[in-house]
Amino acid sequence: SYELTQPPSVSVSPGQTARITCSGDALPKKYAYWYQQKSGQAPVLVIYEDSKRPSGIPERFSGSSSGTMATLTISGAQVEDEADYYCYSTDSSGNLHVFGTGTKVTVL
Amino acid sequence: EVQLVQSGAEVKKPGESLKISCKGSGYSFTSYWIGWVRQMPGKGLEWMGIIYPGDSDTRYSPSFQGQVTISADKSISTAYLQWSSLKASDTAMYYCARLGLERPWDYWGQGTLVTVSS
Fold first, then answer.
1. Which of A23, A78, B19, B86 counts the most CB atoms within 10 A of its CB?
2. Binary contact (B95, A33; C-beta < 8 A)
3. How many contacts, defined by CB atoms under 8 Å, are there between A and B?
4. Does pLDDT of B102 surpass 90?
5. Residue A84 in contact with residue A90, Cβ under 8 Å?
6. Contact A86 B45 (CB under 8 A)
Protein backbone atom coordinates (compact mmCIF):
# COMPACT_ATOMS: atom_id res chain seq x y z
CA SER A 1 0.00 0.00 0.00
CA TYR A 2 0.98 3.64 -0.29
CA GLU A 3 0.10 6.55 1.97
CA LEU A 4 0.16 10.32 1.76
CA THR A 5 0.28 11.93 5.19
CA GLN A 6 -1.08 15.38 6.01
CA PRO A 7 -1.55 17.25 9.31
CA PRO A 8 -5.15 16.92 10.55
CA SER A 9 -5.67 20.64 10.97
CA VAL A 10 -4.21 24.07 10.31
CA SER A 11 -5.59 27.26 11.80
CA VAL A 12 -4.74 30.82 10.73
CA SER A 13 -6.14 34.32 11.10
CA PRO A 14 -7.48 36.11 8.01
CA GLY A 15 -4.62 37.55 5.97
CA GLN A 16 -2.05 35.14 7.37
CA THR A 17 -0.30 32.38 5.44
CA ALA A 18 -1.47 28.78 5.76
CA ARG A 19 0.86 25.96 4.81
CA ILE A 20 -0.29 22.38 4.40
CA THR A 21 2.20 19.58 3.94
CA CYS A 22 1.85 16.20 2.25
CA SER A 23 4.43 13.50 2.80
CA GLY A 24 4.89 10.46 0.56
CA ASP A 25 7.79 8.24 -0.47
CA ALA A 26 7.06 8.48 -4.21
CA LEU A 27 6.76 12.27 -4.33
CA PRO A 28 10.34 12.74 -5.58
CA LYS A 29 9.20 10.93 -8.75
CA LYS A 30 5.49 11.73 -8.93
CA TYR A 31 3.57 14.98 -9.10
CA ALA A 32 1.38 16.15 -6.24
CA TYR A 33 -2.07 17.60 -6.78
CA TRP A 34 -4.26 19.48 -4.31
CA TYR A 35 -8.02 19.55 -3.91
CA GLN A 36 -10.23 21.84 -1.89
CA GLN A 37 -13.48 20.47 -0.50
CA LYS A 38 -15.92 22.83 1.13
CA SER A 39 -18.65 21.47 3.36
CA GLY A 40 -21.30 19.59 1.41
CA GLN A 41 -19.57 20.04 -1.95
CA ALA A 42 -17.52 17.96 -4.33
CA PRO A 43 -13.75 18.52 -4.33
CA VAL A 44 -12.19 21.11 -6.62
CA LEU A 45 -8.67 20.96 -8.07
CA VAL A 46 -6.62 23.95 -6.88
CA ILE A 47 -3.04 22.90 -7.78
CA TYR A 48 -1.80 20.40 -10.36
CA GLU A 49 1.65 19.06 -11.24
CA ASP A 50 3.10 20.31 -7.93
CA SER A 51 2.77 24.03 -8.59
CA LYS A 52 0.44 24.89 -11.45
CA ARG A 53 -2.83 26.69 -10.83
CA PRO A 54 -5.95 25.99 -12.91
CA SER A 55 -7.75 28.97 -14.36
CA GLY A 56 -10.16 30.51 -11.92
CA ILE A 57 -8.15 29.58 -8.84
CA PRO A 58 -6.98 32.69 -6.92
CA GLU A 59 -3.28 33.55 -7.04
CA ARG A 60 -3.04 33.21 -3.26
CA PHE A 61 -2.97 29.44 -3.79
CA SER A 62 0.46 28.07 -4.64
CA GLY A 63 2.23 24.74 -4.49
CA SER A 64 5.74 23.38 -4.23
CA SER A 65 7.45 20.06 -3.82
CA SER A 66 10.84 19.01 -2.54
CA GLY A 67 11.97 15.47 -1.88
CA THR A 68 9.26 13.46 -0.19
CA MET A 69 7.14 16.48 0.77
CA ALA A 70 4.72 18.64 -1.17
CA THR A 71 3.32 21.86 0.23
CA LEU A 72 0.18 23.86 -0.48
CA THR A 73 0.44 27.51 0.55
CA ILE A 74 -2.46 29.92 0.93
CA SER A 75 -0.95 33.39 1.11
CA GLY A 76 -3.28 35.88 2.75
CA ALA A 77 -5.92 33.30 3.64
CA GLN A 78 -9.53 34.43 3.41
CA VAL A 79 -12.53 33.25 5.40
CA GLU A 80 -13.87 31.62 2.22
CA ASP A 81 -10.76 29.39 2.10
CA GLU A 82 -12.02 27.43 5.09
CA ALA A 83 -12.29 23.88 3.80
CA ASP A 84 -10.74 20.44 3.84
CA TYR A 85 -7.70 20.08 1.62
CA TYR A 86 -6.45 16.82 0.16
CA CYS A 87 -3.25 16.05 -1.67
CA TYR A 88 -3.30 13.34 -4.31
CA SER A 89 -0.68 11.34 -6.16
CA THR A 90 0.17 7.83 -7.27
CA ASP A 91 2.66 5.27 -6.08
CA SER A 92 5.93 4.87 -7.98
CA SER A 93 4.37 2.39 -10.44
CA GLY A 94 1.57 4.82 -11.27
CA ASN A 95 -1.04 2.14 -10.70
CA LEU A 96 -2.18 2.98 -7.17
CA HIS A 97 -4.02 6.29 -6.86
CA VAL A 98 -3.99 7.76 -3.37
CA PHE A 99 -5.54 10.75 -1.64
CA GLY A 100 -3.84 12.19 1.39
CA THR A 101 -5.36 11.97 4.84
CA GLY A 102 -6.80 15.48 4.55
CA THR A 103 -6.26 18.76 6.41
CA LYS A 104 -9.00 20.95 7.83
CA VAL A 105 -8.10 24.60 7.37
CA THR A 106 -9.77 27.06 9.73
CA VAL A 107 -9.54 30.80 9.07
CA LEU A 108 -10.72 32.86 12.03
CA GLU B 1 -19.34 22.14 -20.94
CA VAL B 2 -18.02 18.99 -19.29
CA GLN B 3 -20.52 17.50 -16.86
CA LEU B 4 -20.74 14.35 -14.79
CA VAL B 5 -24.24 13.74 -13.46
CA GLN B 6 -24.76 11.03 -10.90
CA SER B 7 -27.88 9.12 -9.95
CA GLY B 8 -29.85 10.08 -6.87
CA ALA B 9 -29.54 9.14 -3.22
CA GLU B 10 -30.29 5.56 -2.23
CA VAL B 11 -31.51 3.97 1.00
CA LYS B 12 -30.97 0.22 1.15
CA LYS B 13 -30.99 -2.65 3.63
CA PRO B 14 -27.97 -4.81 4.40
CA GLY B 15 -27.64 -7.65 1.92
CA GLU B 16 -29.39 -5.79 -0.91
CA SER B 17 -27.73 -5.06 -4.24
CA LEU B 18 -27.22 -1.62 -5.75
CA LYS B 19 -25.93 -0.01 -8.93
CA ILE B 20 -25.32 3.73 -9.10
CA SER B 21 -24.48 5.67 -12.23
CA CYS B 22 -22.44 8.57 -13.56
CA LYS B 23 -23.33 10.07 -16.95
CA GLY B 24 -20.74 12.11 -18.78
CA SER B 25 -21.41 14.82 -21.33
CA GLY B 26 -19.59 17.64 -23.09
CA TYR B 27 -16.49 15.60 -23.94
CA SER B 28 -15.41 12.35 -25.57
CA PHE B 29 -16.52 9.85 -22.91
CA THR B 30 -14.47 7.03 -24.38
CA SER B 31 -11.19 8.97 -24.24
CA TYR B 32 -10.86 9.60 -20.50
CA TRP B 33 -10.67 7.31 -17.48
CA ILE B 34 -13.51 7.68 -14.98
CA GLY B 35 -12.86 7.00 -11.32
CA TRP B 36 -14.95 6.41 -8.22
CA VAL B 37 -14.15 7.92 -4.84
CA ARG B 38 -15.72 7.06 -1.48
CA GLN B 39 -16.19 9.49 1.37
CA MET B 40 -17.56 7.99 4.55
CA PRO B 41 -19.39 10.32 6.95
CA GLY B 42 -16.93 12.84 8.38
CA LYS B 43 -13.97 11.11 6.75
CA GLY B 44 -11.54 11.65 3.90
CA LEU B 45 -11.48 10.76 0.22
CA GLU B 46 -10.68 7.17 -0.79
CA TRP B 47 -9.88 6.14 -4.35
CA MET B 48 -11.85 3.01 -5.24
CA GLY B 49 -10.99 2.31 -8.85
CA ILE B 50 -11.07 3.53 -12.42
CA ILE B 51 -12.40 2.44 -15.79
CA TYR B 52 -11.50 3.41 -19.34
CA PRO B 53 -14.83 3.41 -21.17
CA GLY B 54 -13.12 3.05 -24.54
CA ASP B 55 -12.19 -0.57 -23.86
CA SER B 56 -13.57 -1.17 -20.33
CA ASP B 57 -10.07 -1.62 -18.88
CA THR B 58 -10.68 -1.48 -15.12
CA ARG B 59 -8.32 -1.08 -12.17
CA TYR B 60 -9.26 -1.38 -8.50
CA SER B 61 -7.71 -0.17 -5.30
CA PRO B 62 -6.64 -3.23 -3.29
CA SER B 63 -8.96 -1.99 -0.54
CA PHE B 64 -11.99 -2.31 -2.80
CA GLN B 65 -11.05 -5.24 -5.06
CA GLY B 66 -13.77 -7.86 -4.77
CA GLN B 67 -16.05 -5.54 -2.81
CA VAL B 68 -17.49 -3.54 -5.72
CA THR B 69 -17.73 -3.75 -9.51
CA ILE B 70 -17.02 -0.86 -11.83
CA SER B 71 -18.42 -0.93 -15.35
CA ALA B 72 -19.33 1.39 -18.19
CA ASP B 73 -21.71 1.56 -21.14
CA LYS B 74 -20.05 3.75 -23.73
CA SER B 75 -23.15 3.77 -25.91
CA ILE B 76 -24.87 5.96 -23.30
CA SER B 77 -21.71 7.61 -21.85
CA THR B 78 -22.38 6.18 -18.40
CA ALA B 79 -20.17 4.58 -15.79
CA TYR B 80 -21.45 2.43 -12.95
CA LEU B 81 -20.51 1.34 -9.46
CA GLN B 82 -22.29 -1.68 -8.07
CA TRP B 83 -22.52 -3.84 -4.99
CA SER B 84 -23.94 -7.36 -4.83
CA SER B 85 -24.51 -7.38 -1.08
CA LEU B 86 -24.42 -4.09 0.81
CA LYS B 87 -23.17 -3.69 4.35
CA ALA B 88 -23.84 -0.93 6.84
CA SER B 89 -20.20 0.09 6.42
CA ASP B 90 -20.93 0.96 2.76
CA THR B 91 -22.85 4.00 3.97
CA ALA B 92 -21.05 6.92 2.34
CA MET B 93 -21.05 9.57 -0.35
CA TYR B 94 -19.73 8.24 -3.62
CA TYR B 95 -18.27 10.55 -6.26
CA CYS B 96 -17.32 9.87 -9.84
CA ALA B 97 -14.61 12.01 -11.39
CA ARG B 98 -12.82 12.31 -14.72
CA LEU B 99 -9.12 11.53 -14.86
CA GLY B 100 -7.86 14.37 -17.03
CA LEU B 101 -4.69 14.04 -19.04
CA GLU B 102 -2.68 16.69 -17.17
CA ARG B 103 -5.10 17.29 -14.35
CA PRO B 104 -6.39 14.19 -12.62
CA TRP B 105 -9.94 14.41 -11.27
CA ASP B 106 -10.55 17.66 -13.12
CA TYR B 107 -14.34 17.25 -13.18
CA TRP B 108 -16.49 15.67 -10.49
CA GLY B 109 -20.05 14.45 -10.23
CA GLN B 110 -22.29 15.90 -7.56
CA GLY B 111 -22.05 12.75 -5.47
CA THR B 112 -24.50 9.95 -4.64
CA LEU B 113 -25.32 9.36 -0.99
CA VAL B 114 -25.79 5.69 -0.20
CA THR B 115 -27.33 4.81 3.16
CA VAL B 116 -27.42 1.18 4.27
CA SER B 117 -29.53 0.56 7.34
CA SER B 118 -31.82 -2.12 8.64
1. B86
2. no
3. 51
4. no
5. no
6. yes
